[in-house]
Amino acid sequence: MVNEPEETSGRYKEVASRVREWLEIHKGEHFDLDLISRQLNLGTAEARKYAAIELSRKVQQGILEKVSNRYIYIDSSYKVIDWLNASVESFDVKFPYGIEDQTKFGFDGSALISPGDIIVIAGQSNAGKTLFCLNLLWENMDNYPCTLMGNEYAPGKFKRRVFRMKWRSPVNVDGQPKFELIERFNRWQDIIRPNNINIIDWINITDNFYQIGGIIEAIKGKLERGIAVISLQKSGENPHGRGGTFSVDMTSLYLSMDFNRLTVIKSKEWERYNPNRKTYGFEIVNQGTQFQNIRAIKKCYRCKGNGFNNQGKCDECGGTGWIDDPKDDSCEMITQEYKEAQDE
Q1: Residue 60: partners with Cβ closer than 8 Å, 6 or more residues away
Q2: Contact (Cβ atoms closer than 8 angstroms) between residue 241 and residue 118
Q3: Which of 64, 239, 310, 321 is a Cys-bridge partner for 58, taking CB atoms 3.0 to 4.6 Å apart?
């Protein structure tokens, strides 16, 4: 039981009040007595004692939890989910495809996306992340309100690039852009449009990579009927973006892009065809504005995906480590369905 301080002690009341005020603006944080004492400038042993007593009171009241010498704010709030009256309709997002040859990624039409979902594209530098983001924007801007957030979109450079994407106009009949373009470098959750397709190209984290999980969770928390598509940088053959598996946890669809190939790391919900761990090859054409020759691929059986064997560069795969997968007809199936729909 905590020792009761003298109720008439003005100094105790002052310290206790400041502690309570500090707690109100630091909900959800972990801290210890040293931290709160420094931030409140409690330099005397008496002041620290009173702060410790007030923190102990909060533990007894069920407001704080103490683990070792650290305090954790207990969040007892919750939201009841009305699942019974929820819509089961998926979010009909249209994915990039080969504009000229009409080839499609095998996950298109099988990976299900719902309102409030997160899609992540993790890719090496210059592997096609921005191409994927812009093509996804182009395929959806006539059907959904879209917001594109970027940190490398100089106005003139952006205009030159998108005006090469001639298969669809980015301007409506009133002469205004069909989408919103925003420059943003941090705290993307603060400007998320809850009911839009929010495309963030890209989130740059230079250290404390584990924080990406909290960033994605904060973005997801702002979504209502919309979705977010997030581009992340990744290194080499690592399948995950910076932050590793922390960047995967809150996603419904996680795509990993390397040069001329894309792998589905995670498709949380799917129908007809399971795209998880499937890899697709592609080419980038027309000044970096379009995909082409999208097809299912697999690791080369002769070099085991290394691209080289005892004789040097593998002749079977041309040194890429990958060959076409004739047993996976998902791309052909989705492509044929799309062509038939276009002919109707």
Answers
A1: 2
A2: no
A3: 64
